[in-house]
Amino acid sequence: MIAAAIVTNPVTIFFIVLVIILLAPVILTKLKIPHIIGMIAAGVLVGPYGFDILARDSSFRIFGQVGLLYLMFLAGLEIDMYRLRMNLKRGLTFGILTFMIPMAMGILLSIYLLDLSWITSILLGSVLASHTLIAYPVAARFGITKSPAVLIAVVGTIIAVIGSLLVLAAAVNMHQMGEFSFLSMGWLLLKLVCYCLGVLYLFPRLTRYFFKHYSDYVTQFVYILAMVFCSAWIAGYIGLEEVLGAFFAGLVLNRYVPSGSSLMGRIEFVGNALFIPYFLIGVGMMINLSVVSQGDTLTVTMYILGVALASKWLAAWLTQLVYHMNHTSRQILFGLSTAHTAVALAVVTIGYQMLNPDGSHMMPESILNATILVILVTCAIAPIVTTGAAAKEKIRMMESDDQQIPEGSSSTTNNILIPIANPVTSQPLVELALLMNEGIPNSTLNALHVRNDNSATSKSIGKQSLSIARSTAAAMDTEITTIERYDLNIVTGVVNVMAERDIDTVILGMHRKATVMDSFFGAKLEQLLNLTNKMVLISRCYIPVNTITRIVVYIPDKAQFETGFRRWVTLLASLTRQLGCRIIFVCRKDQRPPIYTIIRQGEFAIRAEFEIVEQYDDFILLSNKILDDDLFVVVSARINSLSYSTHTAEMPGFLHRYFSRNNLMVIYPEQFGEETQIQSFSDPHAFDLTSAPSPLRVKLAHWFDRLNTAKKRMITQRNRKPRI
Hints:
Elements: H1 10-30, H2 35-46, H3 58-77, H4 81-86, H5 88-112, H6 118-129, H7 136-142, H8 148-177, H9 182-213, H10 217-237, H11 242-253, H12 262-285, H13 297-323, H14 327-337, H15 342-353, H16 365-404, E1 414-419, H17 423-437, E2 443-451, H18 456-475, E3 481-486, H19 490-501, E4 505-509, H20 523-531, E5 535-540, E6 550-554, H21 565-579, E7 582-587, H22 592-601, E8 607-612, H23 616-622, E9 630-635, H24 646-658, E10 663-668, H25 695-719
Parallel strand pairs: 1-2, 1-4, 2-3, 4-5, 6-7, 6-9, 7-8, 9-10
Antiparallel strand pairs: 5-10
């Protein structure tokens, strides 16, 4: 080993680390080697046991610990909770197998081959039973984090880590007291239960309150990190491992950080660009390759490594057999569960520090060195196995998606237009459109600002509104086309852009009543509905969309026969999947099967519930249960459509009267028919479009007025008091 001067300048140290983070993936990608191995190997080379360029000082220990916690936090944050519940039983089975089999084989190895004591054997068994999701970034890079095999491996990791930590606590207790104490173990389990209940109760309420009052992304990002490290600190304080607290915080906060949101993009970027690579480099700096030549270290290493790999593979194989999984899933289970780092280091270090009555170490130095070498080999094997299996799983998932795409979604376009009036409404509208559009193929996003004058103020508002739209989409790693248009008025501009861009869906903010005579939706929206048969979605949210707890959808009778039925169900299902909340369809009995079929064919994996109503009065009674954190969605209809009725005409007044303070979304589905053509204007400078009603409509309206007048006259005569 060539010794070199240790670099102590902070700027130089950080520069060397950034060069490693930059070049390791670039070089190793060409060699088809997982970049994780490059990070660890680079840590070995520049560390104190390599060329001694960098010392593993407090900065590496701090950033390494932060990176490990960040890795576990991301693992919990990226989990699809619905799919996790679906795979919970299989995950528990795998967790028990991947804990018990290595534990038993490790104890047998220690007693019969290594001739160790019972307490030392138990400690070594817990080392082999635990594992770290060091290959999880590989699964995330391939986009298979929602695969059942990955979710099963994550649940298994939780079980294995908790089991190993409990075994460690029991071994330490036996060493200190000379016997096993059920009281101390019961106390630890009680603290674990109280900790979980406390985090489950407090964290969601604090997060919802904070997100409602602070919308700045930097502030939200710092808040999320603070909650993660608070959870990790509490877990360590009560005697658990910090990684467990970070992972549990990710599970609890999962609901408030949608996978397609800009906040999620910032969290992933910071972790993958800095903290996690720092952790991997720090792991490499702890590895001393010279221990191979010391005494019987190599023999002990071969024994432990063989048991570690064989036991983890056996657990994955048994899980495959029990649940009839394919070969690729078994490889993913083995790849994600075979790496030993954090918990293994903690256990072996604690065991080495424990002394026997004769002054010798409870965990011999040969076991310590062999464990470090096993960490190096397993950290190299895990990414390689996971990479090969992840590529196959990605291909399988893509083929499955092609087969399961709902009919019409792949052959037709899904072009969305977002008319933006001002900078205030730009960000929430774009975020809503991005969340609804996430995962839907053949879709494009367009942001539009229409102005009808060339004043400097109007131009400034338009540029600022579109700039916010671009930055919001860029933060969510999505492309959006921004359009600034000068036209006669807003409605004309929107209609013309819809024709030019072949727009299928319009998402816009809800009109606010300015005067008593003003209608609920406003004249411009009513004219837009008359001029297009495409789907129009009007939204009004008083709270951030990621704090919504339920989506309640009212569906009118015969809505399933409308042309755009599949499209709006797909968009709402996509939004529900991103938010991780429940969606409740208030519908007729015959509408449940087609809605359920669309959700199942699209594989949205959401919690969909159905409230069956038969009459409009049932819906009115049910609407009293809409809460402040709910999103109330009303599927409306245009005049002369199949689902249009007298109740549809009364709906705007009903919404204004009873839901003026609720989060609201009104959807006008796409329907057959040609749009009304714009032919002439009585006043070219008018802000709103006007159109004369047809003669047939005038006659029908006159006939209904006469009918209502006669009905009122009959009621009046019936209620008139008789003369005495």
